[in-house]
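Sequence in, structure out.
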Amino acid sequence: MMAKVITVANQKGGVGKTTTVVNLAHALALMGKEVLVIDLDPQGQVATFLGMEQSAGAFYLLSTAVDPSANPLMVLRQQMRFSGRDRLYLIPGNPLTNMAQTMLNASNAPLAVIRRMLTPLVNNGKPDYILIDTAPSVGGIQERAVWAADLLIVPTLPDSSSLEGVQYMAGMVRELKGKGWPGVVAGILPTHYEERTRESRSSMDDLRKAFSPLVLEPISDRTALRDARSRGQTIFEYEPDSQPAAEYRRLAEVILRIEG
């Protein structure tokens, strides 16, 4: 069975992309799946969230993607780091990722350049899942990361101002579909959801009206997620019996069902 690539993306920042990548990845690993996370956000926060050091792994990955003489599998293995958690690995990022984006654009790299780089791992079937974190902006990497994906998850805040970011991503998906992207949208994921507030409930209703049935069950806004992040832990390490932990397990189960 081939590995599946999941990209987590939104044009807007602060919507829980990295939190979702880290906790979904660990949930899948705890369910017995081998998972690789690739951090294509120049902020490099995946490593920080996992209690690891940032490095230029994503830069080397992207900069060699346009080198026809490069051995993609060798580069991937060289830049892969063990997270300290069973079955969970990371190719970290740091601010040098911005330079790689400039190189991709200057060389007019095709949309499929990241997917081609990942093909040896995808065909090998190990890891089972490759999760890609992206920057909250466009400029080349985000579009190529979405093209690389079999499944796209779009996190969003449940507020009126965030609907614009979801609409932008919907437009990107339509554009990429027109160019032959074979992936699918796994869902729109509301994060920082506060059931007690009228705004959260109203925004959930608006999301469901606009994008049903793509809207996934939300991730609750709890201090446990912020506390886990500040300690370099996932929610499953910091508070495994919490509501957000149950919700990220549920998201992982949705992903597993998509794959049959």
